[in-house]
Amino acid sequence: EVQLLESGGGLVQRGGSLRLSCAASGFTFSNYAMSWVRQPPGKGLEWVSAISGIGSNTYYADSVKGRFIISRDNSQNTLHLQVNSLRDEDTAVYYCARGGWGSYRGGGIDSWGQGTLVTVSS
Amino acid sequence: DIQMTQSPSSLSASVGDRVTITCRASQSIRSYLNWYQQKPGKAPNLLIYSASTLESGVPSRFSGSGSGTDFTLTITSLQPEDFATYHCQQSYTSPTFGQGTKLEIK
Question: What is the DSSP string of A37-74?
Answer without folding.
Answer: EEE-TTS--EEEEEE-TTS--EEE-TTTTTTEEEEEET
